[in-house]
Amino acid sequence: MALLRDKVALITGAGNGIGRGVARRFAREGAVVVIAEIDERTGPAVAAECVELGARALFVRTDVTDKASIEAAIATAVEAFGGLDILVNNAFVPTPNVKLEDKTDEMLERTLRSTVWASWWAMKAALPHMRARGGGKVVNFYSIDVEMGAWLHGDYNTAKGGILGLTRSAASEWGRFNITVNAIAPTAMGATFHKLCAENPGFAEKSAAMRPLGRCGDPEEDIGPAVVFLASDMSRYVTGESIHVDGGLHLPGYNSRPADVPVRER
């Protein structure tokens, strides 16, 4: 029995990587899928894939760093399908991997806009439509990098820490509307993973060996089901949670210090 049958779901950044995997899994579970993606090549392609899987799907070009664009995407979804039940805030815009002292204000601003602000705007825009449906589901994307204090990700870690605060605040306040708000901290073979594999021979094998389950996650088969759980009635009594979906990587953790950075320097 499809867990998301006829539920209208909007997924940001669903044109590739984890977002694409979640969209495809939602389609397999009977959801109506709105692909909110900036890439006008990959976005329509994923929407077509969802249709091939038997779902109704729509691509809406969306720039998550722009409030008006996000609000327009949600309005388009509601106009096309009559409402909104599920919001998945997955998208973010990466910045160069440099040490904290070399991160610029512009990098932090860009990261905040594509994560904290984007999720804030989308959630606020989705709220009246979810209330009109008698409830809804929000799934935000957190990161293990916050807990590890991952090197070269100072702006990203700051923003994802904010996502967790936003998730818990909304869960606390919006429970009265029958809206659950949760976060996942996934690691999987998405766009960043494949980029690192291309740049660092052996990265895939080392990454798999770090995890108790001994393998790297698949966006559709490993991450998608966790998001489906949080978006379905199976999690009707779960809110304000952050769930690691990383093959157990959070247990041993990892050391992200670059090899060329000394332990002490002046």
Automatic annotation (TrEMBL):
CDD domains: SDR_c. The keyword Oxidoreductase applies. It is an enzyme of class 1 (oxidoreductase). One of its GO terms (molecular function) is glucose 1-dehydrogenase [NAD(P)+] activity. It comes from the Bacteria. Its EC number is 1.1.1.47. Keywords: Oxidoreductase. SUPFAM superfamilies: NAD(P)-binding Rossmann-fold domains (SSF51735). NCBIfam families: PRK07231.1. PANTHER family: 3-OXOACYL-[ACYL-CARRIER-PROTEIN] REDUCTASE, SHORT-CHAIN DEHYDROGENASES/REDUCTASES FAMILY MEMBER. This is Glucose 1-dehydrogenase. The lineage of its organism: Bacteria, Pseudomonadati, Pseudomonadota, Betaproteobacteria, Burkholderiales.
